[in-house]
């Protein structure tokens, strides 16, 4: 049965892409759209990047692209990859190749002209589909049947594919989260479990990048549960061990029901303990950005909030802490309470309390303390530690009073404090 993406791939009609494909196919050579763009089009999902495979050698790819007036950048020329910018859009073009030698992290390749060999060196059947300039799909590994069944399957021997690049263990669960249904492929799951120690060979940047893509899936909960069962989650994220990831189900459901935008860092917080020391180690090990590390740190430091807490009491804690950290705590508490509320009326009341406090937190704006050091020196205070101590005590009194004392009242208290010595 012939399959085509023509008619459902608007991007295929781009005149610059068609010119590029024609140039690469001239003179007996061939060029086809490869991988994700074909897969996503067949699955009715958005297409972000368009990759091309060609029989042209890298230098010939550059020559032909530049002859068409396009910009060619040798982004990975040692592996046969050239990025061509045509009509303002980047296209990653890679010469057909086969792996000569692999060490679980990188591969040495040889260039060739065999499309089946090129397909068989890829990871999953759904990622090894090609499409010609006319949209006709070429399937050399059974990828179309797997797409129709929403089944994620390694090409050939799963263990062999993983030994070529251990990152494929995480990719297996990431692609299952995005494209799979039912249970993961049994052979793939067993191979991931057997070879999970190979993850230790990978760089922190590659592991975190893959975990972020997994956590960004519409619903990563099933994939994470299978990762835990295969002990892959513990190998990649030891902080999750003995903590449990059951909260991820309630969180993803709350996202859908309450209209929350999927938040990969909040999802991460749902599967690791709120321990500031351990989150610091996690951030350092996986080389988090400063923003990512700070987000986890503030969440871990934010103390748990009870559902009966008043807005006034919460405001004091927000002033002393971080609003995002408390918002994360409240979202996770609300999601968990909603799960329990199905069979527990008390949990339903808790969910209402958490919802109220979350709404307050999101609207809350930190008030500005009305006094500065200059106000105290104007009253005769001598700059130094004593002045700082008085100012700090006054701010604490102001917070405990619900931020109510105005500037005049605070100046009176400052005068009294200075008079008392």
From TrEMBL:
Residues 188-240 form the tRNA nucleotidyltransferase/poly(A) polymerase RNA and SrmB- binding domain. The keyword Transferase applies. The keyword Metal-binding applies. Its cofactor is Mg(2+). It holds the Pfam family PolyA_pol. Residues 31-153 form the Poly A polymerase head domain. Keywords: Magnesium, Metal-binding, Nucleotide-binding, Nucleotidyltransferase, RNA-binding, Transferase, tRNA processing. CDD domains: NT_ClassII-CCAase (cd05398). Belongs to the tRNA nucleotidyltransferase/poly(A) polymerase family. This is CCA tRNA nucleotidyltransferase.
């Amino acid at each position: 049965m012939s399959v085509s993406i023509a008619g459902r791939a608007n991007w295929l009609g781009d005149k610059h892409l068609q010119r590029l494909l024609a140039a690469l196919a001239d003179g007996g050579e061939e060029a086809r759209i490869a991988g994700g763009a074909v897969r996503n089009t067949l699955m009715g999902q958005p297409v972000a990047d368009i990759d091309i495979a060609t029989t042209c050698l890298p230098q010939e790819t550059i020559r032909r692209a530049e002859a068409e007036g396009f910009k060619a950048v040798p982004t990975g020329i040692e592996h046969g990859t050239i990025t061509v910018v045509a009509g303002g859009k980047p296209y990653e073009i890679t010469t057909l190749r086969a792996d000569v030698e692999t060490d679980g992290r990188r591969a040495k390749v040889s260039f060739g002209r065999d499309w089946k060999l090129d397909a068989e060196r890829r990871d999953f059947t759904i990622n090894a589909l090609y499409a010609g300039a006319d949209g006709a799909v070429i399937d050399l590994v059974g990828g179309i049947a797997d797409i129709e069944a929403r089944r994620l399957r390694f090409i050939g021997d799963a263990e062999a594919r993983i030994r070529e690049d251990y990152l494929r263990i995480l990719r297996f669960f990431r692609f299952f989260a995005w494209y799979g249904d039912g249970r993961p492929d049994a052979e793939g799951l067993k191979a991931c479990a057997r070879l999970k120690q190979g993850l230790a060979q990978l760089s922190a940047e590659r592991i975190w990048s893959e975990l972020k893509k997994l956590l960004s899936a519409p619903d990563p909960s099933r994939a994470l549960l299978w990762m835990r069962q295969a002990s892959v989650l513990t190998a990649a994220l030891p902080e999750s061990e003995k903590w449990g990831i059951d909260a991820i189900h309630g969180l993803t459901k709350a996202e859908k029901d309450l209209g929350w935008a999927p938040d990969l860092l909040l999802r991460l917080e749902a599967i690791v303990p709120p321990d500031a020391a351990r989150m610091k180690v996690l951030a350092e090990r996986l080389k988090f950005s400063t923003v990512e590390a700070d987000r986890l740190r503030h969440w871990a430091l934010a103390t748990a909030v009870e559902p009966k807490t008043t807005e006034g009491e919460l405001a004091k804690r927000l002033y002393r802490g971080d609003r995002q950290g408390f918002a994360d705590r409240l979202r996770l508490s609300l999601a968990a309470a909603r799960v329990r509320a199905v069979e527990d009326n008390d949990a339903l009341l808790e969910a209402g309390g958490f919802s109220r406090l979350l709404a307050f937190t999101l609207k809350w704006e930190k008030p500005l303390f009305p006094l500065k050091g200059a106000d105290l020196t104007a009253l005769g205070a001598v700059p130094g530690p004593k002045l700082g101590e008085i100012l700090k005590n006054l701010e604490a009194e102001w917070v405990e009073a619900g931020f109510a004392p105005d500037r005049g009242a605070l100046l009176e208290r400052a005068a009294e404090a200075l008079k008392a010595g």
